[in-house]
Every structure is written in C-alpha cells, then in structure tokens.
Amino acid sequence: MSHPTIPISDAESRVMDVLWQQAPLTSEQIVAAVQSNSDWHEKTVRTLLNRLLGKSAVEATRDGRRYLYRPLLTRAQWQSQESHSLLDRVFGGRVAPLLAHFSQHEKLSAKDVAELRKLLDAIERKER
Amino acid sequence: MSHPTIPISDAESRVMDVLWQQAPLTSEQIVAAVQSNSDWHEKTVRTLLNRLLGKSAVEATRDGRRYLYRPLLTRAQWQSQESHSLLDRVFGGRVAPLLAHFSQHEKLSAKDVAELRKLLDAIERKER
DNA sequence: CATTTCAGATTACACGTGTAATTTTTATTC
DNA sequence: GAATAAAAATTACACGTGTAATCTGAAATG
C-alpha cells in the first residue's frame, strides 16, 4: 500500500488539527492555538508535538533559533485511516452496513440525503 | 443518551462477537469459538471475558457448576458507540463529510451503491 | 564572561490494553 | 476425606496514552 499507517492518539489529533488549519507554525503558536480550545498545560502540548515528531506525523525545520512545524500526515489520510479502522473493526470491512447504520441511527437531513444521492450518481457515472 | 457508553477494547470485541452470534454460552464454548478465529491462549480469552464482566458488557448466570454468559451490550449499541466516536473525533460530528469521505475514498461495489439507494429511498419515504 | 531564560529533550507516572501465568476455589474421584 | 481437576479470580508485565515536571543546551542579557 502507499502510506504506512501512523497511529495518532486522540490528544495528538488535537495538535494535528491546529496544523491542519494552518502551517507552518512555531511551537508557541501551536500551544496557543491548542489552548484556545482546551485547558492543556503547555508542557502537555509540547509532549504531544514531540511524540508526533517521533512518529513522523509532523516535521520540524529549523528557522533561526526555533523550529517551524508542519504536518506530514494530511487530514484526509488520517480520516481514511480512522474510517478504515472503524470499517474493519466494527463493520467487518463492509461499507454498506456502516452506511446503513449511519442512515438508520444518525439523523440525516433531507439535504444530507440529497447530497448522498448526488454522490451515488457520480460514482455510478464514474464506474463506466 | 439513554445508554452509558461502555468502552470495549479491540480484543474484547472479538469475545463479544462470539456472544453476539450466539448466547448464552459457557466460557469453554466462548474460548473454543474465539480460538477458531485466532490463536489466543485460553487464559487470554478468559481474562477478556472477565474484563467484560467488570464492565457489565456481559452477564454471567450460574448454571449448575458453571456460568452461562450472555451479552448485555448489543452489537447495535456498540456499533453506535464506535460510529459516534468516529463521527465526533474525526469528522467534527457532521455526518455528510463522513459519508462523502466513504463515498469518495472507500470503494463501493455496484451492489453497495444499489443497496444505499434503497436505503435512501426508504428514508425519504419515512420522512413523509 | 557569568547568568538568566527559554525551546526543546528527557524523564515520570498512572491507567487501559494485549497477553498471559499463578493462585484460589469448587467439584469430582479415589 | 484426600487428591485431583476444572473454572474462576488474582496477579503480572510491557507498551501506548494522558498529563505533566525536570533537565539541558544555546541564546540573550547584565
């Protein structure tokens, strides 16, 4: 397969989230952004950032005396990883039961339904 | 939010899976069923079963000298928990982006598409 | 240059999980 | 009843994660 899966913990994903919104950023900026949505200690955020570095989910390039951080793992890649994990773990790898579950148990607005229909049309057209 | 969320680990869910297929079962039957799909040690399976008891995800009723185990958490409840967790953690709680992601990035067979269409039809009919 | 100040690196520690082994309890068999 | 066997409960231990505190090295400051 193309991308090796990079496990991102829940807390780590909050840090990724700020980098997905804007990058590159200094650690100070990242800490500030994370703290605007949480009450995590600065040390905590820095630890998470370091773990993400260790996993190569973000990269750091020196900029004068600091580093600038940017995501290597993209949000779409991560969403794929997580979705696939749910699909396999919980729905036996079959998409239809998953979608059925969401359709039945999560409220879909008429707009959602219409949107889905368009997606299905597009898929069928693409499929020959 | 009727049911309190019960966190089930990945390994634990394999044990639940056999109970969702058939219940009640003795621990011996559970061990055998789990081992038919894995190479876990009997002790491992029993540990998982015990943790599930501790979480009240299964119940044990005495039957002579053994216990009979049955699930308290249903598969549908668990699927809801996990789906909701993905939705919130990864897709900001919005269903449409999740469905769009699956539609675009996970391969849907023609059969999946047909099935989904039927679901959408059913939803629209129900919606008045 | 000695000192203070930070950014970054290293260490900490409890809890859940994967993966059992050990111990205890209960029941069955000499 | 003593010994054994089977089931259940308790304990073990490493690794990831949440949540920091401490240490280190280099830069700015007096």
Please characterize this protein's 3D structure.
Two copies of one chain form a homodimer. Chain A is built from six helices and two strands; from the N terminus they run αααββααα. With 128 residues, chain A is mainly alpha-helical. In chain A, a hairpin with a 2-residue loop joins strand 1 and strand 2 (66-71). The structure holds a DNA duplex (30 and 30 nucleotides).
Q: How are the elements arranged and paired?
A:
Two copies of one chain form a homodimer.
Chain A: H1 10-21, H2 27-35, H3 42-54, E1 58-63, E2 66-71, H4 75-91, H5 95-105, H6 110-126
Antiparallel strand pairs in A: 1-2
Helix pairs in contact in A: 1-2, 1-3, 2-3
Chain A binds a DNA duplex (30 and 30 nucleotides) through helix 1 and helix 3.
Short description:
2 copies of one chain form a homodimer. Chain A is mainly alpha-helical.
Oligomer: homodimer
Report on the biggest sheet of chain A. Answer: 2 strands, antiparallel
What would you give as the CATH superfamily of the largest domain in chain A?
Answer: Winged helix-like DNA-binding domain superfamily/Winged helix DNA-binding domain
Taken in chain order, the helices and strands of chain A follow as: HHHEEHHH
Descriptive keywords:
DNA-binding; homodimer; mainly alpha; two-stranded antiparallel ribbon; 2 domains; Arc Repressor Mutant, subunit A; 128 residues
